[in-house]
Amino acid sequence: MGLVGIGVTASGDTDGGLRAWRRWWAPFGLRRWPVLRWLIRHIAGGLLSLLAASILIFIAASVLPGDPGAILLGHGATLQAIHATDARLGLNHSLVFRYFSWLGGLLHGDLGKSGVAVAQGASGTAAEVWPLIQGRLGNTATLALVTVVLLIPLSLGLGVIAAVRAGRLTDHVISAATVAMVSLPEFVVGTILIVIFFVVLHLLPPVSLVAPGQTALAHPNILVLPVATLLAVSLGWTVRFVRFGTIETLDSDYVRFAELNGIARWRVLRRYALRNALVPSIQMFAIVIQYLFGGVIVTEVVFGFPGLGQGLVNATLAHDTPEVQAIAMIFAAIYVTILIFADFLVVILIPRLRTQM
Questions:
Q1: What distance in Å separates the CA atoms of residue 200 and residue 192, rounded to the nearest whole number?
Q2: Is residue 2 part of a domain?
Q3: What is the residue-wise DSSP string for 268-335?
Q4: CB-count exposure of residue 141 (10 Å: 0-12, 13-18, 19+)
Q5: Number of domains in the chain
Q6: Are 149 and 120 in contact (CB under 8 A)?
Q7: Partners of 128 in the β-ladder
Q8: Is residue 205 in a domain?
Q9: pLDDT score recorded for residue 123
Q10: How confident is the model at residue 21 (pLDDT cuts 50, 70, 90)?
Q11: Using CA atoms, how far apart are residues 137 and 311, in angstroms rounded to an integer?
Q12: Regarding predicted confidence, which is higher, 333 or 183?
């Protein structure tokens, strides 16, 4: 009996200690914040996705045909100069060693050295990739953000109007216009805009040049045609998704019940229906915004806009492998960040999802 009593007492003390420790630790645990736990889990998944992307990007850039040193130096380069350039770029090491060396540099914020700069004899900071693409990143971000600022209200307005007037002339006009926008590629839209606004009307420049040391916002007129091109292609998708989500929400039981109680349709739409109608469109907006940051290559080439897309094309043609890898990784990081942010918005807008975490 004594031994049993001692065992029970010891067990009780142990359980009491565990409960006390759990009470002390609970405020610092993640169970109290399911959204934070979800966010940490998705950020970890995003980092793994970036790791996988880095492997694919490095391999794809490394298997480009031709000797980088010979391409960078040109046809008149000697064999000794080619080998020296390859050595300065670290190409004399194995593929695995080069990958981990590049990955270690990325983790420390080092994007590597530009092959073109190294071939021209630059060294130190002048040969690094980041100073060369920093301005291009700002230009692409400006182009994409201006487009997003216009895209969201236009998509919501046109989509809601088309849904409210479904089956009428307004809906048919908006739907036909969006179908036409989706069917036309960027270079066709850009060419049409150049013909209209430069060749015919002489209003806007056909080339969007940005002087060194300036930003794209210094001359807003050079942004009009590229932004209009991106908007024309993007609106075709977003307006249709907003329209579909709004129609589905307006046909729901709770909206009909609210209207039967005398609440005006626009008030029901603004206060109750619009939030639920937007949720299915968030992922589409995320995909379109991804395109605006990463898929602007064609638009930037058409208008000569000095952004990351144009820089990626130039670096690929010049066989500047470090710059190609750096720009591709920036695009990958933007993609992952936008997707995580879009999923986070869905969790915030739908309370029931937080209870399922």
A1: 11
A2: no
A3: HIIIIIHHHHHHHHHHHHHHHHHHHHHS-HHHHHHHT--SHHHHHHHHHHTT-HHHHHHHHHHHHHHH
A4: middle
A5: 1
A6: no
A7: 113
A8: yes
A9: 67
A10: very low
A11: 9
A12: 333
